[in-house]
Hints:
Elements: E1 7-11, E2 31-33, E3 39-43, E4 57-59, E5 65-69, E6 113-117, H1 123-126, E7 141-145, E8 151-154, H2 155-158, E9 166-170, E10 177-180, H3 184-190, E11 195-196, E12 201-205, E13 212-214, E14 222-223, E15 229-233, H4 244-247, E16 256-260, E17 280-282, E18 288-292, E19 306-308, E20 314-318, E21 361-365, H5 367-373, E22 387-392, E23 398-401, E24 413-418, E25 420-424, E26 435-441, H6 448-452, E27 459-463, E28 470-473, H7 474-479, E29 485-489, E30 496-499, E31 518-522, E32 529-531
Parallel strand pairs: 1-3, 2-4, 3-5, 5-6, 6-7, 7-9, 8-10, 9-12, 10-13, 11-14, 12-15, 15-16, 16-18, 17-19, 18-20, 20-21, 21-22, 22-24, 23-25, 24-26, 26-27, 27-29, 28-30, 29-31, 30-32
Amino acid sequence: MLRDLEELRIEYCGIGVIVAKDQVSESVTPLLKFPRLTFLELSSLENLRNFYPQKHTLEWPHLYRLSIRSCDELEIFEKEVSSSLEIHEEGSSLDSKYPLLSQCKVLLPKLEILRLSNLIGLIPLIWEDQLSHNSFRNLKTLFVESCGFVKLVPLRVLKSLNNLEELEVRECDTLELVFDFEDLNDYKEAESSSVIVPLKKLTLCGLQKLKNVWSNHYKGDVSFPSLRSVHVSYCESLTSLFPASIAKGMLRDLEELRIEYCGMDVIVAKDQLSESVAPLLEFPKLTFLKLSSLKNLRSFYPQTHTLEWPHLYRLSIRSCDKLEIFEKEVSSSLEIHEEGSSLDSKYPLLSHGKVTYNLEKLTLMGKGAEVIGSGQLSMYCFPKVKVLYLHVGYDESKSISYKLLKSFPNLEELRLRGHIKEALGGGDDAHLPIKLSLDEIYNITSLVPLLVSPPNLTHLHMVSCYELTTLMTSSVARSLVHLTSLSISNCDGIEEIIWKEEGEDDDDEEFVFSKLQHLKVERMPKIRSILSWTH
């Protein structure tokens, strides 16, 4: 009677079984058929032990998506291979558990999405040697959260996941290795071809004991040519992300790489084989690189190397203060680093003229922001950067110089944040942005040096600039003839937006901000007036 059922979701219920036992004694094993079921979700069913309380056969040939979360009493996979297509054995007691899924020849031929959560010790049963390779042949997305296992995907299973495109693993406290190539030698003896994994997106988060993503035994016979997005965060025990053998030419489709709050000191581990020439690490399609709160990170690669990412569009580096971002001197070759460096050497991430050409958005927080903000990086040029965000001085107050703008000839928007004690002019040849945003500026008491130079300024946005009492003088206001948007929020000390300078008469007043289209003033408890005199 449920032949048309397509979706079944059960959450936070006290049920012990999903289908109750028939009151009439059954002489044959009942067949429970769901020919059109495509989505099954079982979540937080703490008492659930079985789908049906006695021996039975289940069929759902078109199951497309399966999600099981926090059903600790439910046995999902058989521990041994059944001798028939039926899921359960004869003579089981009433307290027996009947595994939800059989290890028959074709288990879930249509399954594309598998979500497993809060299921301790489950993963090894999924990947039993006896499990048919056809069981997950159409699986595209595997999501695993809070499950107990040490190694996730062995090679023998990986080579059968012919359609796996997305893998996401979160909060698995015992996981030490994601892709296990321990059995690579056995595979090579049996198979002559290499393993090609179609994975496109990899997300790893909150894996406290993760030591390696790829096994150290990797030897180049397994490739990930379709990988486009990698996001790794809160993996404190991880010392590197990629083996050199994967990073060398096997990440040509990688478009996005984000690494946050990890313990790694390098991103690409050193090749186990000695190298006679500096390796070339190519990322021809990479457009977004984010490195955030990596307190141990010293280098992208621990030895002399060449980095190429010609289409890098967006770069964000926050709180990676051991990482050398910029070169101190111009290199005499196209290679980023010099020969004969010690293992403790730092290898600057960016060459002064090679890898920055197509960059349009640059975000720096910490040491890198202070180097840029000081205006002392004249050998670098970022010809296409349109948006620059600098967060400086979270340990002590720093100065910002408009000289920095000489490295950004086409800058449109400058965003500043942090402990800035003063702003210094950069001279007439500094290209000034048309948008200026100030967010949580703690120490600066006057914006006049920042606002005197930019006559082309069209947008000025300020949030939480606590020590300011006024925004600008009337003469500065008159110079901002192109200003169209002014937004001021949560600046507790500001009493006046514009004040009349000493010696200025009311006869000197003229209308300011003639092109202003948008004015926003909010959460300003001391504000008395926009102007210090009446028009």
